[in-house]
Amino acid sequence: MIFGRSERGKPPVEPVTLKILVAGGFGVGKTTLVGAVSEIRPLRTEELLTEAGRPVDDTSGVEAKSTTTVAMDFGRITLREDLVLYLFGTPGQERFWFMWDELSEGALGAVVLADTRRLEDCFAAVDYFERRAIPFVVGVNCFEGSARYPEDAVRRALDLDDDVPLVLCDARDRESVKEVLVGVVQHAMTQAARRRSAVTT
Questions:
Q1: Which residues form a coiled coil (predicted)?
Q2: pTM of this prediction?
Q3: Model pLDDT for residues 74-132, shown as the tens digit of each residue
């Protein structure tokens, strides 16, 4: 189906639109993830890294990185004819964290991307969503050449609650990213059902 048209006389379906955040540390692959899955040309707000930023932009482990997101990334993906996700990639550096409150307004859930070479870089994102009770999934971005660790070891290192999903993914691969996004929607729906159940009992 094409939006605004009906197929074989069927009435047009009004899609549900959901907002998903993509967060994580500097250089973890947020812009790549949004670009890999977006069905529209993604909006990017990247600027070149400069010498002035060297003291605050830690590029250890991502030395080849030459640009950084300074506002947000934006993309869109249709999971079903009646379900559309809007993706908002957050900037990773601490000096841009003031934007997170604006970006998280109305979000159904989030993906926290993690890099096992720099796992501590995603602590702030995990803490942010936990404090605000925003459902999130941790996606361990499997970079080439990075060590693979058991899921339990990564979960312990991040001090994740047992009900927070943790998945391995490749931020460059569309199908891998789609699986992560489906996981976010399912997790958020499960959390919402639990909250409703707690209120009615």
A1: none
A2: 0.80
A3: 999 999 889 999 999 988 666 666 788 888 999 999 999 999 999 999 999 999 999 99
